[in-house]
Design brief:
With 275 residues, the protein is α/β, with parallel strands linked by helices. The protein has one domain: Rossmann fold (3-Layer(aba) Sandwich), CATH 3.40.50. Helices cover 38% and strands 17% of the residues. The radius of gyration is 17 Å and the shape is globular.
Amino acid sequence: MTTLYCGMNRAALDAAYNNVEAIPDFPAVMADFQARSTGLYEQASCRRDLRYGGSPRERYDWIACGQPAAPTLVFIHGGYWQNCAKEDFAFIASGPLANGLNVVLAEYTLAPDASMTQIVGEIGRLLDHLGADRDALGTKGRPLVLCGHSAGGHLTAMYRGHPVVTSALPISALVDLEPISLSWLNDKLKLSAREIDEFSPLRHIGKGVPTMVAVGGAELPELVRQSDEYAAACASAGEAVELLHVPGCTHFSILETLARRDGCLAQALVTVAGR
């Protein structure tokens, strides 16, 4: 088969970006995430499905920690821009809430119903909305940490320069869309040449907030490479960046370190939020 990217053909690229196949017990993992997320919603003080735009999935959940003058975490879920929902990952809010942060769980329209251009635009509208609504939410003048996982990490990296964001935590982020466009993932994404360039954060570092780039030590090599190269590019551009390899964590188990109050990502979040 024809070599397409970094010595990989289509089959190799498909495997290199197939996190589901890399986790033998993936259905059980997701079932556990969903069950714990349901429990979080039942226990937390939550306002669900608040609107930030006109399309059905332009909505977010606001979960208050109950502490005065608290920072806020905005979390963008993954799913390769084409799967999953905020309700699948609400469990991650447990750690930040316990550590005194409010949590916003972001939703967005998925491919193929939305192009990458539309998806990126929706997250921009969410952040604009949160900025305009700071008085009502009680977040004015308080830190706002933008965080996302996988595809959500990509969207986090896209907006580390947004004026309401004070720090960023992209987890297992997909910052180079070229290999994505050559793999099975593009069957639904249908990335254009313009989108590959414009929406690859690795190619456009720019000025932004202090950023902690996190990736699991047991993730697929391409995921590790993308995080390593992004952190290096940020550093070369003179941006404040820290790279964190979380030992032993897969693409999904890394989220446990955010969900646990004493987990390494939960503690890193406390640090970057200045809590």
